[in-house]
Amino acid sequence: MAEIRSEILNTGHPKVKAAQIDINGRPSEVFELLIDPAKHPLIDGSNSVKSVNWGPEKLTLGSKFGMRMRIGIPYRITNYVIEFNQNKLIAWRHLGKWVWRYELTDLGNGQTRVVESFDGRPSPYQWWLRRRNAYKYVEKAMAKSLVRLKRLVEEKG
Q1: Res 151: pLDDT
Q2: pLDDT at 15
Q3: Residues of the chain whose pLDDT is less than 70?
Q4: Confidence at residue 22, expressed as pLDDT on a 0 to 100 scale
Q5: What contacts 153, CB < 8 A, 6 or more positions away?
Q6: Which of 142, 116, 99, 140 is nearest to 30 (CA)?
């Protein structure tokens, strides 16, 4: 079996990182996993998302959801869904104000292109992002997340 890989994209902006992958599955199948916060630990390529702490079973625009996290030490974070277009787009942020976004494009023939991005531009905590080397770290984590997402969708189908 060939190794599954995603592609890290050049966004043209040092504070915006992105990766993409093509998945054998309809946008609705991919989106169902993304809007279920209980699935986020299975998708997360950074291994920092441990479990959903509270929130709805399915995310929609304006949803709030709490996650148990671990980067060095355990902590909890509240996320807010700030963009939502059924089967096409979902994005959330937390108190750090950086944005995690998934954009889905229907390629036809039951395939979906997924672009995951991290936008650090809105954050007032640039010093923290630099200190944690977050921009370099997240693009690798996103690439791993997309591979995990692809496996989950394709193994389900």
Answers
A1: 95
A2: 95
A3: 1-2, 157
A4: 97
A5: 23, 24, 25, 29, 30, 33
A6: 116
pLDDT at 3: 79
Structure tokens at 147: 């591979």
CA distance 88 to 118: 17
pLDDT tens for 74-91 read: 999 999 999 999 999 999
Half-sphere exposure in the Cβ direction for 136 (13 Å, CA): 4
- For 7-156, CATH number? 3.30.530.20
Report the amino acid identity of residue 138.
V
| Triad 50, 14, 59: Cα angle to 5° | 35
Give residue 82's Cα distance to chain centre.
13
pTM, full prediction: 0.94
The two structure tokens encoding residue 97 = 């104000």
Do 46 and 141 contact (CB within 8 A), yes or no?
yes
Q: What residues have CB less than 8 Å from 101, skipping those under 6 apart?
A: 83, 89, 90, 91, 115, 116, 117, 118, 119
